[in-house]
Design goal:
Blueprint: H1 2-12, H2 28-36, H3 67-98, H4 102-130, H5 161-172, H6 180-192, H7 200-220, E1 231-234, E2 241-244, H8 248-268, H9 274-297, H10 308-331, H11 339-363, H12 374-401, H13 410-420, H14 430-435, H15 437-464, H16 472-491
Antiparallel strand pairs: 1-2
Length: 511
């Protein structure tokens, strides 16, 4: 409770009244006033909120015991343990190089084996945190496949006060203590960015601090001078700390956390409503857009989670989840049991499968596969097979349940079918399949067989991942889809099944 009271006291301390200032001045007086009037740094005229008469918007209470805050606290603890073990390993390796005593070498090698074992265990625990998708889902979500959210990067506290006060005294010949409250405001803002709320206000908080950074860099971090301030951020996948004196790491990490926050907003959206699905689609697209900007702007970040290869994979994954939500939005009002509607849904499902296949391929490339949680790559593989099987099920339903009748538009069905297939079995045309009942049933049954095989493969892959097995809702969806395909097969089975080797064509994806 004392920590909580201290935190609240710090947040509620009185601020000086802020006057109006139109912008940064290049002269001495203008630059000093700019430090006082930090509100001029807000882009696009963003106004302040936050309550309790505080000047800066607050982050979430770091002592609040929500599922997400507990997860982030565990991440911070693991990061500290990982850096401790890495320091021990570095010390042991240096001692091993320096000593020529065989007995000492044996002791050091034994210690190194313990340290490496501990590091592997800690990395495994961190992978488990990155696999804990349940806390990010909508609390009422029971009928949709869970989505993956990015975790926030952790950082260390930084004290700007000494640097800024000394710089003001040296450069402007004024007492730096005069600006103590304003400097504390800035430090409070950075601290709040460690626990942003999972909504637009949280993103706005990070965006505001991000807008301060270029101005801080221009005024207090000259390129020809070592400031003595080190920005430390932890890799969100490995927990390895990265430390730099320049502000590039700080800027990039804040952008990464903005993208992570948007991904969390997307996973939390209510996917049982059109509005919720639209919010999810927009959030994942924004998250991918921020990461793409990060990849193009900061090309040499030392943190592996922000390397071009890793960012490219994350962008693909976020866009795949946006495409998945688009498919759910199309299906939410109900899929009409009509030839054209079923074929359209087949192409939508095939599109989701194709993108997840690209995601999976990027995840299994070296060195990404060594740092991405096994849960992530397994999930992408499961979804690849699941949505491909759904595509084949929809085509099978269209062919088996909707024989071409006198009242049907033959030309329209022929056009629709030709758009679904890139190639047809040799000697067959779309019109032949539509008009000949035997051909139509043969191709339809081939599709349902591929659907069943795909669902079985998805269930097999699902069983291989311990963390994935915790998602009961995913297993229920996979088994229900598998059973639906089995039922469709049993409704149309015949004696020729054992001698029919027709292979279902691939489905062209379209969205």
């Amino acid at each position: 409770m004392e920590e909580l009271e201290d935190w609240e006291d710090r947040r509620k301390r009185s601020r000086r009244k802020k006057g109006n200032i139109k912008g940064w001045k290049e002269d001495k007086e203008g630059s000093l006033r700019a430090l006082r009037m930090a509100d001029t740094l807000l882009p696009n005229g963003i106004k302040e909120g936050g309550g309790d008469s505080t000047y800066f918007r607050k982050g979430c209470n770091p002592f609040a015991q929500t599922g997400r805050s507990k997860l982030q606290k565990e991440r911070a603890t693991l990061n500290q343990q990982i850096i401790k073990q890495m320091r021990m390993r570095a010390g042991a390796e240096n001692l091993l190089k320096a000593t020529s005593n065989n007995k000492v070498k044996e002791m050091v090698l034994l210690e190194l084996s313990y340290v490496n074992s501990n590091l592997q265990l800690l990395m495994g625990e961190l992978e488990g945190l990155n696999s804990s998708v349940e806390v990010y889902q909508n609390t009422q979500e029971t009928a949709n496949i869970p989505l993956i959210a990015l975790g926030l990067k952790e950082t260390k506290d930084i004290d700007f006060s000494t640097l800024f006060k000394d710089f003001i005294l040296e450069h402007y010949s004024e007492d730096g203590n005069t600006f103590e409250d304003e400097i504390a405001d800035l430090m409070d803002l950075r601290q709040a960015c460690r626990t942003p709320s999972r909504d637009e206000a949280g993103v706005e908080l990070l965006a505001k601090y991000s807008s301060h950074l270029p101005l801080m860099e221009n005024r207090f971090f000259p390129p020809n001078r070592q400031t003595g301030i080190f920005f430390t951020w932890y890799d969100s996948f490995t927990g390895v700390p990265v430390c730099q004196q320049n502000m590039s790491l700080e800027k990039a990490s804040i952008l990464f956390n903005m993208a992570a926050l948007y991904s969390q907003i997307g996973t939390r959206s209510d996917r049982q409503t059109i509005a919720g699905l639209e919010e999810a689609i927009t959030s994942f697209q924004k998250s991918a857009g921020i990461l793409n900007h990060l990849k193009e702007t900061f090309t040499h970040t030392p943190s592996y989670d922000m390397s071009p290869a890793m960012l490219s994979m994350l962008i693909r994954m976020l866009l795949a989840q946006a495409q998945e939500c688009l498919f759910e939005k199309t299906a939410l009002p109900g899929i009409r049991n009509q030839f054209h509607s079923l074929m359209k849904m087949a192409q939508e499902a095939a599109k989701v499968s194709e993108i997840y296949e690209q995601v999976h391929q990027s995840m299994i490339q070296t060195p990404i596969k060594d740092n991405v949680p096994f849960f992530w790559s397994t999930t992408s593989q499961v979804k690849t097979n699941h949505y491909r099987s759904m595509a084949h099920f929809f085509v099978a339903s269209a062919l088996l349940d909707h024989q071409l009748g006198l009242s049907d538009d033959e030309d329209q069905q022929e056009k629709t079918l030709s758009q679904v297939y890139d190639r047809l079995p040799e000697g067959r045309s779309p019109l032949d399949i539509l008009k000949k009942r035997d051909e139509r049933e043969r191709i339809g049954k081939a599709h349902i067989r591929r659907a069943i095989l795909g669902h079985e493969e998805a269930l097999r892959i699902y069983s291989l991942c311990h963390h994935l097995n915790k998602l009961a809702v995913l297993e229920d969806i996979l088994r229900a889809s598998h059973q639906r395909s089995l039922n469709k097969c049993s409704e149309n089975e015949g004696e020729e099944e054992f001698t029919d080797y027709t292979e279902a064509p691939d489905i062209i994806c379209e969205s």
